[in-house]
Amino acid sequence: MRRVRSSTQSTVIDAAENILDATHTHFTHQGLLRGLSAKRHLVHVEVTGGEGWVEACYTGEERQQGLISRLLEGARTKTIGRFRHPGIAELEYWGTNGLVLATTFHLRQADERTVEGVGWLIGQRQGGIGHLKALAFKPLFNIALEQDRKVLKSASDNARLPPEALPAIGPLDFLRRDIAAIMEGKMPSAAADPRVHQIEL
């Protein structure tokens, strides 16, 4: 298990969505979390939720070619991104023999412009060369965190420029509206209306 601490200029909603958004890794973390090739997989995404939580389950992406994925994963059967009230973002990577890697981030709005987070990275216990791979994971993960920090700061700076604009929510932002609803104390729409998508990742 590894622990990481981070703070960034953002909001809890934006930071949580960034952590849970599988589609941004092609652009923000190319080479680290996803491969450098243009090859894509047809992925099935199921969005479900309930009181205080929402999750997206991705299946159909058997293997990733990013450096972190190649270090720690074999075949992948599914990826789950989950948000829990009041600010917990969870990622789970499942392989053919069960859970391979889990990350949990506890986020809080420290002030109007700053989100602080503590994350735990939990993987299967490994010996020998596997132990060395696990040691390499934290510094690589810190690089990914810094990449996200830059994107979130840029989005925060842009949001403050006049005229004030509503957040841009695209068709691949599967969890954004549900996370916002949960933060407002409402039931996420996915609780009553689970959604299924087919996308290329």
Question: Can you lay out the helices and strands and say which pair or pack?
Answer:
Elements lengths: L1 E8 L2 H9 L4 H4 L13 E9 L2 E7 L7 H6 L3 E9 L3 E8 L2 E14 L2 E10 L5 H31 L16 H8 L5 H4 L2 E6 L1
Antiparallel strand pairs: 1-7, 2-3, 2-8, 3-4, 4-5, 5-6, 6-7
Helix pairs in contact: 1-5
Class based on secondary structure composition and strand pairing: alpha+beta
State the total count of DSSP E strands: 8
The helix count comes to 6
Beta-strand proportion:
35-45%
Span between N and C termini?
28 Å
In short:
This protein has helices spanning 12-20, 25-28, 67-72, 129-159, 176-183, 189-192, and strands spanning 2-9, 42-50, 53-59, 76-84, 88-95, 98-111, 114-123, 195-200. The chain has an 8-stranded antiparallel beta sheet with strand order 1-7-6-5-4-3-2-8.
